[in-house]
């Protein structure tokens, strides 16, 4: 066989082989592209689902927070008022057990108002409070009753101040400390109530 023919055959075979290799490579490239496109679409779909879930969760939390805030606001306000009334009674105790001069009529006026607020507030909001807050408010109310008895059952001096025996002074100081303890519980309950309601509505919404 002539050399030229052999060369031509080899060249033809090489061309066919090159074509086959190119064809195989093209198939592989197309397959890889298809797989990449499929993976990309899958990632896009998963991302879209994740974003939708996140959006739904954020909306659920927003709604729960709004409901919890609205529902807790009047109770938080009531607890804040109770804290303030307890503080007023504590300040009055400090005033009457100290040697400084004071006007008993003004003390009694301020005390009666704070005491009345505690009693009325507990009657209105007591059933809506947590167990610990309800007990604390009730104890504060009882302590205020003790202070009232101490104020009304003592003699007064010519300068319109109370004449308090040492035992009564010590008792009032103990009452003041008890009021501080109840005040701290009420303050903590006020801070926790919105979070508790938020958790509740996150569970039910």
Structural summary, described in words:
- 87% of the residues lie in helices and 2% in strands.
- A hairpin with a 5-residue loop joins strand 1 and strand 2 (162-163).
- With 205 residues, the protein is mainly α.
- Helix 1 (3-97) packs antiparallel against helix 4 (166-204) and helix 3 runs antiparallel to helix 4.
- The mean pLDDT is 83.
Strand and helix layout:
Blueprint: H1 3-97, H2 104-125, H3 131-152, E1 155-156, E2 162-163, H4 166-204
Antiparallel strand pairs: 1-2
The counted number of beta strands is 2
Q: Which sheet architecture does the biggest sheet show?
A: 2 strands, antiparallel
Strand content: under 5%
Q: Give the helix level as a range of percent.
A: over 70%
H/E topology pattern: HHHEEH
Spatial separation of the terminal alpha carbons = 89 Å
Q: What would the principal axes of the Cα set say about the shape?
A: rod-shaped
Q: Order of strands in the sheet with the most strands?
A: 1-2
Mean pLDDT: 83
Offer a concise description of the structure:
This protein is an all-alpha fold. The chain contains 4 helices and 2 strands, in the order αααββα. The chain has a two-stranded antiparallel sheet.
Give descriptors for this structure.
two-stranded antiparallel ribbon, 2 strands, mainly alpha, 205 residues, 4 helices
């Amino acid at each position: 066989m002539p050399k030229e023919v052999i060369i031509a055959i080899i060249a033809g075979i090489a061309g066919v082989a090159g074509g086959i290799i190119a064809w195989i490579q093209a198939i592989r490239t197309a397959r890889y592209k298809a797989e990449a496109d499929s993976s990309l679409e899958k990632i896009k779909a998963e991302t879209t689902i994740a974003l939708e879930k996140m959006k739904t969760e954020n909306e659920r939390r927003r709604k729960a927070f709004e409901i919890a805030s609205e529902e807790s606001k009047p109770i938080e306000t009531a607890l804040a008022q109770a804290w303030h009334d307890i503080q007023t009674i504590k300040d009055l105790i400090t005033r009457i057990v100290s040697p400084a001069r004071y006007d008993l009529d003004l003390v009694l006026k301020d005390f009666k108002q704070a005491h009345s607020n505690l009693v009325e507030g507990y009657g209105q909001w007591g059933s809506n409070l947590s167990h610990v807050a309800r007990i604390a408010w009730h104890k504060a109310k009882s302590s205020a009753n003790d202070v009232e008895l101490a104020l009304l059952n003592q003699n007064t001096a010519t300068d319109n101040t109370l004449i308090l025996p040492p035992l009564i002074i010590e008792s009032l100081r103990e009452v003041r400390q008890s009021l501080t303890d109840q005040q701290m519980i009420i303050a903590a309950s006020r801070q926790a109530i919105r979070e508790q309601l938020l958790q509740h509505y996150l569970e039910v919404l």
